[in-house]
């Protein structure tokens, strides 16, 4: 009788269906890793369930309807990204676009909410057309190599800054930033979370992000950092008041064109930056195997248009997707896990709202600082290459918008190369893109 062979140490292959859908083994991952990565990505992005509806409520939008609309869009768009693009990305209304709708258009300019949604709708249509025609993918190919390498670092620094700011580790003081109150319970928990997270990652503990977020949330209860909801179950409010509350004709008035371009440019560069950062991680894990960029671009383009129809403005690929790749997520199963957790939240909306910023800040800070290591690949021996890359990183932080940071890096590259006479280094496509970049800054200044 044959002696059974030991199974310890063997790598268990994912079920056939999961393998066909997501190619998990091909990307050097496992179902357990993908599920944990999806949970990390959800926890890192869960704040949007509270923050975005609150911003829209300031503009007179019903908070309950906005919350339900946001969750529905996050579920559908994130699920579609996993299915169609097989990438670990989470989508939801972006804070920058929501701020433009709520505070600039509706409150500042008195633009009706339906017209604002119409502007978002048309920005998504333009986005979708450029994606179908392959122009968006072309833009990513004509990007200067060193500028593209700096995108991850720029996003990383911005992510870390969001983490520091959200928990009061840094605060505004007039025109500058100063050290926050480190004795405050939230700040102390965030600092402890950073140390714990680094220690767990150094020891290669699986699910480190999830452990830290859950631990701080629980410890924060007696310290008053985590606020317990009055009820843990609640039926979602109807999104009915926002569904098709959109004026696509009125949005085409000439005076709204600068806003249309502002939405488009911000969405273009920010979403493109996140997608490139995540796909670069996957390429590293698969030995440089190419990832089809057109598929994720199609999904987030369609999500912008679809989201505007139900009152969820400016849907974009979230920075917090890096929490998924940082936890080892490499396939669309990570996205499906995140989408499934958003679906669960529909019944437990109060629970999602109890995760404090002190719990998510360590994840953002550690992931962001880790991403800064990518700048070492930039050619710093040539100032005409190094300065545009450095400007991208610096302006992302100083202006608080990584879309603007990427635009700065691209435009400064063309200008610096032209002034120094290095015209051969400039891809012909960059000359086509330059007028749009100039107009982007003109529209932003006005």
TrEMBL record:
UniProt keyword list: Membrane, Transmembrane, Transmembrane helix, Transport
Compartments, as annotated in UniProt: Endomembrane system
**Membrane topology classification:** Multi-pass membrane protein
| A GO cellular-component term linked to this record | plasma membrane
Q: Can you tell which superkingdom this protein's organism belongs to?
A: Bacteria
Q: What's the main place this protein lives?
A: membrane
What InterPro entries does the database record attribute to this sequence? Azg-like, NCS2
- Pfam families attached to this UniProt entry: Xan_ur_permease
Q: Name one GO molecular function term.
A: purine nucleobase transmembrane transporter activity
**Membrane-spanning residues where?**
35-57, 69-91, 111-135, 147-164, 176-200, 207-225, 256-276, 297-319, 339-369, 390-416, 428-445
Which family is it part of? Belongs to the nucleobase:cation symporter-2 (NCS2) (TC 2.A.40) family. Azg-like subfamily.
Q: What is this protein called?
A: NCS2 family permease
Organism in which the protein naturally occurs: Rothia santali
